[in-house]
Write a structure and sequence with these properties.
The protein has a single domain, classed as Umud Fragment, subunit A. It has 3 helices and 7 strands; from the N terminus they run αββββαβαββ. The protein is of the alpha+beta class.
Length: 150
């Protein structure tokens, strides 16, 4: 009986530790607009692995803090307030993709910066307007294949 209680206590402690770790490493973000369609749709909830836990790679969908970007206003004069969801297209030292070459003004992505693009260019404000953005603005990486119910 004591062994069973000890194992149960240890299991409970492990579950609490796992919950605390998951809370520190994961966030849920709701997609707000059509810029990432068809990969992500407005209203869809995605699970995000926070930056310290995730490896950045081109092609991954990332969540970005607009406050850390110091973004110019869009053509309508608005500045984003909520977290942004975009695709990481290029890392420091990578060639600058053609659609953003004029905005970046360099043949390779500068140190400490990344290139972000929306999957739906007609509805996306991204590095085509902003140029290369600070890598530190990335909050986390959307986990592939994990969609939460709305």
């Amino acid at each position: 009986m004591q062994l069973l209680l000890a194992v149960g206590g240890t299991l409970a402690a492990l579950l609490v530790a796992a919950a605390v770790l998951a809370r520190a490493a994961l966030s849920v973000v709701v997609v707000a607009g059509p810029s990432m369609a068809p990969a992500l749709r407005p209203g869809q909830r995605v699970l995000v692995l926070r930056r310290g836990w995730a490896r950045l790679r081109p092609g991954r969908i990332v969540v970005v803090s607009p406050a850390a970007l110091d973004l110019p206003a869009d053509p309508a004069g608005r500045r984003p307030q909520r977290l942004l969801v975009k695709r990481l297209t290029a890392l420091p030292g990578d060639p600058v993709p053609d659609p953003v070459r004029a905005a970046v003004g360099a043949p390779v992505v500068p140190r400490g910066r990344v290139v972000l693009l929306g999957d739906n260019p007609a509805y996306s404000t991204d590095s085509r307007l902003w140029g290369a953005v600070p890598a530190a603005s990335i909050v986390g990486v959307v986990l592939d294949g994990v969609t939460l119910r709305s």
